[in-house]
Amino acid sequence: MPNRFVTRFAPSPTGLLHRGHAFSALTAWTAAKTAGGRFLLRIEDTDFTRCRSEFQAAILDDLAWLGLDWESPVRRQSEHRAAYDAALDRLREMGVLYRCFRTRKELLALAGMARHADDPADARAFAGGPITPDEEAALLARGQAFAWRLSLTAARDRLGGFDALTWVEETADPGVKTAAPETLGDMVLGRKDIGAGYVIASVVDDALQGVTHVIRGEDLIETTSVQRVLQALLDLPTPVYRHHPLLLGPDGKRYAKRDGAVTLAALRDTGVSAESLRAELGF
């Protein structure tokens, strides 16, 4: 009989874990324990340009210090690139991907020139679309770097629209939600240098690992729409989603690696106990 409740915590080893990560991990772990289900740890290290082995080791140490346990072996995405690249190949064969050669700076400039760029969401979503075959051939001949973007126009045509793409949300504004991927536009799914990225890798892994409940921060709600499109295109199951509120620091902003937020390792070094941190976080 298949497990009725399987969830995961899937950090990326691009820095040390902080209070926000602890809150998310404890939320997922507690949900699994309460449901009598399974808790998985997955290391999302597809981007070898930013991920570090020392951060992977620190993640395991931090979670063990918090008192969490998980099933072995831990799935490391860097060891399963073939599965993600195969999914990317399938999407390419469907005709729903295109090469984007524009840099982030160029895309921002294009968004600023677009008529709808006064709307922040529209400006963010503006990717410029595919270029002509001749232009693409010339750039490829020069060895120009590119990203693989999901064409929402092509995906919509293939699926007959997005209205039937729904999922169950149990935490953030609970109910049945309908995919609205236009908010994020033609999202990058892979790059020439690293292959498939975390958005598609996460979808593939959730299916392969039998994840029934995805529990993560509410900052990823918008990404769910794009992942729901990928699930439909790749004939993969759709988990139930729980997007929990983000933990905020004293300044009212969410904790983030780039902001140098207080890490769990630093808290340990100053004598903070796992029990006191868990209590502070409501566990």
What's the short version?
This protein is α/β, with parallel strands linked by helices. Helices cover 41% and strands 16% of the residues. β2 (38-43), α2 (53-66) and β3 (75-76) form a beta-alpha-beta unit.
Question: Mind sketching the topology for me?
Answer:
Layout: E1 6-9, H1 19-35, E2 38-43, H2 53-66, E3 75-76, H3 81-94, E4 97-100, H4 104-113, H5 120-125, H6 133-141, E5 147-150, H7 152-159, E6 166-169, E7 175-178, E8 188-191, E9 195-196, H8 198-208, E10 213-217, H9 221-233, E11 240-244, H10 264-269, H11 274-280
Parallel strand pairs: 1-2, 2-3, 10-11
Antiparallel strand pairs: 4-5, 5-8, 6-7, 8-9
Helix pairs in contact: 8-9
Strand proportion, as a percent range, falls in 15-25%
Summed up, the helix count is 11
Profile the largest sheet. 4 strands, antiparallel
Order of neighbouring strands in the sheet with most strands: 4-5-8-9
